[in-house]
Specification:
This protein is mostly beta strands. It has two helices and 15 strands.
Amino acid sequence: MATVEWRVRGDEFASCNCSYGCPCQFNALPTHRFCEGFFCYKIFEGHFGDVRLDGLTAALVAHCPGALHEGNCTMQLIIDERADPRQREALVKIMSGEDTEEMATIWWVLAAMSPNKVDPVFAPIDFEVDVEARRARLKIPGLLEATGEPIRNPVTGAEHRARIDLPEGFEYRVAEIGSGTTNATGAIKFDLTDTYGQFAHIHLSNTGVVE
């Protein structure tokens, strides 16, 4: 049970090695039977107890040898270098699943399935995301670079729009789906081109998704 009340509202861009749609979103096994990818968040407003988190950015990079629910994953947090010591501690706790009700957030689930946790990194994060346009750009020097864009019709080249609606999800309620290209060069390495991309408005708390 949570001991500190917290809440975070912002925008997310995430991408993994699965095909468009990501079977994990439908309780199916990953496209390639293993999972690797990242999540990045631009926080518009948030707090952890009396610690304000407005305007900060954070990312999470992970690799799982099988499906996420099979565990033995490795994860690393990358926290905005602009965060002061209390903000850094707060974001690490939130994104490590601490002070959160069991199974309430994607962060709790990822942390529970990741016995291998690489020490957090505090770095400059250059991140832009437009959820409705399905576009994003992320650069964390020496660690991670990624872009997101709409899926294209293979015949006409027109932008294709698709969404995933999870009324009981622990990350978002609705996500716009697009294409992601990622080069991760930190402790967790992978190189992905035109794979699953996810864009969502998030509003999470220590008890789960805020309606």
